[in-house]
Amino acid sequence: MNKKLIALALSAIAAAAASAQTANVTLYGITDAYIASHRANGVSTTALNSGGISGSRWGLRGAESLGGGMNAVFLLENGFSIDNGALGQGGLLFGRQAYVGLNGGFGSVTVGRQYSPNFYVACNSDDSFGGCLTGWSAVANMGGFFANTLRPNNSVIYATPNMGGVTGSAMWSFGEVAGSSSASRTFAANLQYKNGPIYAGIGFSDLKNAAATASDKQFIVGATYNFGVAYVGVTYIENKTAAGVKTKPLIGSVTVPFGAARVGLQLAQNKQDGGAKATSYGLLGEYDFSKRTELYAIYSGCKDKGLACTSDGNNGGATVAVKDKSSSTFGLGIKHKF
Q1: Could you give the CA distance from residue 149 to residue 23 in angstroms, rounded to a whole number?
Q2: Left if phi > 0, otherwise alpha if psi is -120 to 50, otherwise beta: which for 254?
Q3: Whole-angstrom Cα distance, residue 72 to residue 101?
C-alpha cells in the first residue's frame, strides 16, 4: 500500500511539473529587510522593518501560447512582512496582484486585482531613487494613491502594444454597488514613452464615492533621463479629494552610479491649497554583491510646515503631524531576489 501511495504521489508531482512547464510557470520573489532608527516628534524608535527598497513578496506568473501570436497569461503575487511573517495588503493572500488575461499583437487585456495605470507612471519616474516607490520615496509618501487606485479590485485593463516606445493603457474598476454603474467605480489611464535614455509619462485616475456624487482625482506627470554618468528624475502630482482638498507634490532626484554601487539624492515639497506644505529629502546608497543581492543605506527626513509628512512610509512612528516638527530615519538593509 505504501509503495502504491508513493508511486501515485510521484506521478502527481511529475504531472504537475509537466503541466507547469507547458504553461511556462515561474516562481519568483523578493526578500527585503532593514534596521531603522527613527526620530519623530522628539521621540526615537529603533525597528526592524520589511520592504525598504522593494516590498517583500513571492509570486507565480505564467503564460500559455494559444497560437497566432496570442497568449493566455496570469499572475498571482503575495506580499508579506519579513520581520514577522504577516501577510501584507490588509491580510490578502494575493494582495499585491492577482489577474488573468490575454495578450498578443493587439496588446493585452487583463482582469483582476492589478496595478493602476497611474502606478506605472509613478514607478517609472521614481526609478532614479533606489527603485520603484521605496519606503522613503516622496513620490509614494507625498503623492500616494487614493483607496482602490493603487491596486484596484475588480479591474479590467487594456494596454496597447509598444509602438516605437509609446504605450498606453486604460482601466475600469467596477464599484459593484447595487443599482449604480458609477458608484465606487475607478477610471484611470496613462500614456508613456520609453526609448533609450528617455522616459516620460502622464496618468490620470478618477474614483467615484459610494454615492456617485464626487470623485477623488489624481493627475501625475513624470520623466527620467540617463546621462550615463548620472540619471535624473522629476515627478509632479496633483491630488484632489472628493471634499475638494488639493495637494501638489513636486519631487526631483539624481542618482550617480559607481560600478556596482549607486548614490542617490531626492528632494521634494508638497503644497496644499491655503499655504500648508511639507518638505522632505533622502540620501540613498546601494551596493550590488551580485545580480540578486544588494546592501543599502538610507538617511531621510521631512518637516511639517502645516502638512503632515513621514521620513519612512513603512513605519508609523516616522510620521509627524504637528507644524514645525521634523522626522528623520537612518536605515541599513539587505535585499535578495529569487
Answers
A1: 31
A2: beta
A3: 6
Cα 83 versus chain centre, distance: 20
State the first-to-last Cα distance of the chain, in angstroms, to the nearest integer.
39
Closest by CA to 98, choosing from 19, 176, 155, is 155
Give, for all 338 residues of the chain, the pLDDT tens digit.
445 544 554 454 445 444 545 569 999 999 999 999 999 988 999 999 999 999 999 999 999 999 999 999 999 999 999 999 999 999 999 999 999 999 999 999 999 999 999 999 999 999 777 678 998 999 999 999 999 899 999 999 999 999 999 999 999 999 999 999 999 999 999 999 999 999 999 999 999 999 999 999 999 999 999 999 999 999 999 999 999 999 999 999 999 999 999 999 999 999 999 999 999 999 999 999 999 999 999 999 999 999 999 999 999 999 999 999 999 999 999 999 99
Sequence-ordered list of residues with C-beta below 8 angstroms from that of 69, at least 6 positions apart, any chain: 104, 105
Cα–Cα distance, 34 to 289 (Å, whole number): 16
Kindly report whether the global pTM for this prediction surpasses the value 0.70.
yes
**Inter-residue contact 141 to 280 (CB < 8 Å):** yes
Task: State how far Cα 317 lies from the chain centre.
Answer: 21
Specify the CATH number for 26-337; select among 2.40.128.630, 3.30.450.150, 3.30.70.20, 2.40.160.10. Answer: 2.40.160.10
- Residues 6 or more apart in contact with residue 197 via CB below 8 angstroms: 225, 226, 227, 228, 231
Q: Which three cell numbers stand for residue 218?
A: 489624481
